[in-house]
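User: My advisor asked me to double-check a structure prediction for Transcriptional regulator before group meeting. I don't want to rely on an old file, so could you generate it fresh from this sequence?
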Amino acid sequence: MSSIELTDSQKKILQELVDLYRESESAVKGEAIADMVDRNPGTIRNQMQSLKALQLVEGVPGPKGGYKPTANAYSALDIQEMDEPESVPLSHNGDMVESANVQEIELHSVHHPEKCRAEIHIQGSVRDFHEGDTVTVGPTPKSSLAITGQVDGVVDTDNTIILDTKTMEAPAED
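Assistant: Sure, here is a fresh prediction for Transcriptional regulator from the sequence you gave:
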């Protein structure tokens, strides 16, 4: 299913639907998605028709209706759904972020400290993160890795924060 090629706009809308659905655990109104991605509700309805045709979204009729992501949506966005994911703390400018969980950490150029970058993939929205913000990730469950850095970029189509790492700590095992 991950062979579906989505446009950046479709990815952003689908990712926002997944984020809002996780927060509310109920159908998401098109207007709520439109507000979050700064688009017209009519545009969202048109995109949802395309996403329905691709079997990534299902419509829920009625007054409490809206849209729900299908299992295929998680696959198309390369999101692994777990019943009870291990929690990895995330703080933003010193405040814990309760509405997000770290899904994956990718380290780049660790051998070159001045250029060390970390890609932090999270479950939850990255809309409140901005360049220059301070972020701390961890400690991770297995290695107790903790990373602190400044946001160097945000990729909202796949909920990724790019950090210019300042510190990385993992306690040495005895």
